[in-house]
């Protein structure tokens, strides 16, 4: 059943205009009595029935709440040093399917990609669109947002999280394997985890030291060296396995 | 340090010709005393030193064995119903990084892609090349192979595995969450697990019934609906977290 993210708080009867109206009426050619899933910006998800539809709006009313909890109990934000090419698109698409709460892209010391404000703006819009499509397809109950920040802004935001991890290749090489499990054990429901991933070439010693001084902890993701876009998939899958399958 | 997969059993002094010789001498312009990692087809991995190099061969001798165990304790084979476009390339590349032991591609009932023998042969070569590059990059100690089989061949191979799972979207929708953990708990080191993933559109009821009758078990991968190429990443990451970080 089609899924729509509605940028307003939950209410049992809803009037929808704009893009979602267009998609229901023109793309899907829906009519009265058709049913869809609606996800409100407070993460309430309902099955709803169309009561009326015209050229400007769709009227819907709640049939029932969605029963299955589809969001990870902790909120995980993936921060990626600007990677090359279309890798950020892949991270956002698959990361959304795998349950990421939000994405941050920042200019890493090793980043080859340099995007000016205009290009960055365009890329951000494109990435948010990808996140929305992936959220609909994977039946999310929250819509992840993608933001571009400077290193300074990234670090200023550390205070908003209950834990900050650095996925560090050298930790993996040295066989570090306790930190991720420990962090999962410590975090309670609704707490927030930020995990920082370097671009191709990794984080530099300067960045590592800076982030560590600000409270971030180094964390290995198993004994194989993962590409910059693969490491977030590992982290999110491990979180889902730990919180959603094991307990 | 550069990594080479050598298709022969371990020996402390080695003579290398062919493609790896070309890469060492021409691409990397290596000379005597340079060091590389060599991985033999019995999964022995060593650091080796070049003792001599000429236009036809490279002579190397062992410096030391690689200490870190980089292979998952269980051998996981990923079987994918032919997906669209370049998705198999993505599955093989990222799946190799994440530790898959082997890959099988089979024609699923819902597969849109139809490859004739010639196209299939070419695709298989390409995929094995991708697996090799990913194995080198991720520091694997075993080189995953990619094979194309019929449904009949896939099922005949069930007997070679200690457990067979079906990643099934409907299981996820219904909140099934015990099977994966149970399977991991039951498998011992060096045992073999086959996991079957449908193409886009999923496995059909006919396929599910067929595989189940042959002993495969349905398995959910968390409450979000994963794309056909994302589900194997989840499975492999969860296995690594379970076997390599938690215990």
From TrEMBL, chains A, B:
Belongs to the RNA methyltransferase RsmE family. One of its GO terms (molecular function) is methyltransferase activity. It catalyses: uridine(1498) in 16S rRNA + S-adenosyl-L-methionine = N(3)-methyluridine(1498) in 16S rRNA + S-adenosyl-L-homocysteine + H(+). It is an enzyme of class 2 (transferase). The lineage of its organism: Bacteria, Bacillati, Bacillota, Bacilli, Lactobacillales. Its EC number is 2.1.1.193. Pfam families: Methyltrans_RNA, PUA_4. The keyword GTP-binding does not apply. CDD domains: RsmE-like (cd18084). Residues 16-58 form the Ribosomal RNA small subunit methyltransferase E PUA-like domain. This is Ribosomal RNA small subunit methyltransferase E. SUPFAM superfamilies: alpha/beta knot, PUA domain-like. Residues 71-239 form the Ribosomal RNA small subunit methyltransferase E methyltransferase domain. Keywords: Cytoplasm, Methyltransferase, rRNA processing, S-adenosyl-L-methionine, Transferase. The keyword Methyltransferase applies. Specifically methylates the N3 position of the uracil ring of uridine 1498 (m3U1498) in 16S rRNA. Acts on the fully assembled 30S ribosomal subunit. One of its GO terms (biological process) is methylation. It is found in: Cytoplasm.
């Amino acid at each position: 059943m089609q899924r729509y993210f509605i940028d307003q708080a939950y209410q049992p009867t809803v009037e929808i205009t704009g893009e979602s109206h267009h998609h229901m009426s023109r793309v899907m050619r829906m009519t009265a009595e058709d049913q869809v899933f609606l996800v409100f910006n407070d993460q309430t998800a309902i099955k709803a029935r169309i009561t009326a539809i015209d050229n400007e709006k769709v009227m819907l009313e709640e049939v029932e709440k969605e029963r299955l909890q589809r969001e990870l109990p902790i909120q995980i934000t993936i921060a990626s040093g600007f990677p090359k090419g279309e890798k950020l698109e892949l991270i956002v698409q698959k990361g959304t399917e795998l349950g990421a709460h939000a994405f941050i892209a920042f200019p890493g010391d090793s980043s080859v990609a340099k995007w000016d404000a205009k290009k960055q703006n365009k890329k951000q819009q494109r990435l948010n669109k990808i996140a929305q499509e992936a959220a609909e397809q994977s039946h999310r109950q929250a819509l992840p947002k993608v933001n571009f920040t400077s290193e300074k802004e990234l670090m200023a935001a550390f205070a908003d999280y209950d834990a900050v991890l650095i996925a560090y290749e050298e930790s993996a090489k040295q066989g570090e394997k306790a930190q991720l499990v420990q962090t999962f054990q410590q975090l309670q429901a609704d707490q927030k985890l930020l995990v920082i991933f370097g671009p191709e070439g990794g984080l530099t010693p300067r960045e590592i030291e800076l982030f560590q001084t600000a409270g971030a902890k180094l964390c290995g993701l198993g004994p194989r060296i993962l590409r910059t876009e693969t490491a977030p998939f590992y982290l999110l899958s491990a979180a889902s396995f730990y919180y959603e399958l094991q307990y």
